[in-house]
Structures are given as structure tokens and as C-alpha cells.
Amino acid sequence: MSRSVFNRSRRGIVSIEFGLIGAAFFLLLFACIDVGRYVASRTALRAAVSEAVRGVMTDPSLAVGDAAKNYALARTAILNGAYLTLTASRVEPTASTAGSVTVNASYVFTFVVPGFPREPMTLNANVTSPI
Question: Which portions of the chain are predicted below pLDDT 50?
């Protein structure tokens, strides 16, 4: 029985194939995780703004300083407070105008996987609600 040149030895071919395909597979896996982190951060930012609006509507003292930010962070666990900027303002109703609560927030998000945007992205959320 003779062996051809291409059928001599197959030892080690699996490790070469894994090296070629495995790297791409793990990059794709981590990219999916990174996109999930992005979506979760965006959703948590919107939830934080909603919580801040609700808090400022019920307690006017939360519109001063970082009180609204701390209130929102206590109710949304995924956001890092160091990267969150949240400002709240409250306009009291008068006889001729309705009052309102406005909350503006921004969150700095950075992707980890190579190939995604390397500079940080800023996510923004704004809500104005009548009192």
C-alpha cells in the first residue's frame, strides 16, 4: 500500500485549524458580549433618567447638586457613577404656567474588543415631564 504526498501525516492539523478558527470565534464571542454591555448600558441610562425624574417630582430637594444622580444610581446597578453625568432641574408651577422637571444625563461607554470604536462613546438621555 503506497501513501501519497498529501496523505502522509495528519497529526497537528487539528491544532492548526483551531488556531485559525478559534481566534476568530473568540473575537466574535467577545464582540457579542461587548454589544450586550452597550445595550445594557443604554437601557440602564434610560432607566436612571426615569428614576431621577420620578424622584425629583416627588422630592424637590433632589434637584440640587448630585442628589438626583445618587438617587438614580441607587436604583440602577449597572452604571458606573464615575462615568455618569446627570443634571436635574425643576420649574415650579405658577398660576399661568405648568411646572416641569427636566433631567439630562450622559454616560461614557468604552468598547473593549479590538476593531470596535476605540474612543469612548457618549450615550445621552433627556426627559422633560410636566408636574
Answer: none
